[in-house]
Write a structure and sequence with these properties.
The protein has helices at 2-14, 19-22, 24-46, 64-76, 79-88, 100-133, 137-160. With 168 residues, the protein is mainly α. α1 packs across α5. The relative contact order is 0.22.
Length: 168
């Protein structure tokens, strides 16, 4: 996930993410790909025979490369990160204080560090919650359908969102 942030931060610093504002079709394509991925995750949760995130099953460890790829692709399919960097970071850059690109990278690094901290806390909280609900089949079923419904709703909202990036 942090690598995806890094890609978008580098692209924003270089001005490449402005392409989303100039070529709305590219923004739409990335947005719809992200919505399709969320829709697929939702279907995996609610389909007949679907699996709960908290289902207690013995799993083999996924290779580090696969986990890295999943996090990277998930983040790269979220063009709103690029738009956030493009719209937010320049507001806090002061050309009189030195190199603009270096200030942009530093501010983005702070955002990435905060995001990693928040994500780590979410992982720890989810691990504790999984332990709590693992032995309760009703909670597992409720969690499965709630997660699937929420992911599906987010996919629909993302796909139908009419917000478009505007050139800076």
């Amino acid at each position: 996930v942090a690598a995806g942030f890094g890609v978008y931060l580098a692209a924003a610093t270089a001005g490449i993410t402005a392409v989303f504002a100039v070529v709305p079709g590219l923004y739409l394509a990335v947005k719809l790909a992200g919505a399709a991925y969320l829709g697929w995750l939702a279907w995996q949760a609610v389909r007949p025979g679907g699996v709960s995130v908290f289902t207690p099953t013995a799993l083999s460890a996924d290779p580090t490369r696969r986990l890295f790829t999943m996090g990277l692709v998930t983040n790269l399919l979220n063009p709103k990160i690029a738009i956030m960097y493009m719209a937010l970071i320049p507001q806090f850059v002061t050309p009189e204080h030195g190199k603009v690109w270096l200030q942009s990278l530093c501010l983005g690094a702070v955002q990435i560090a905060v995001a990693l901290t928040v994500n780590a806390l979410i992982v720890l909280g989810a691990g504790g919650l999984a332990t709590l609900v693992t032995g309760r089949p009703l909670w597992l079923r409720v969690q499965r359908y709630l997660t699937g419904t929420m992911l599906g709703a987010i996919a629909v909202l993302l796909a139908t969102d009419r917000t478009r990036p505007t050139p800076a």
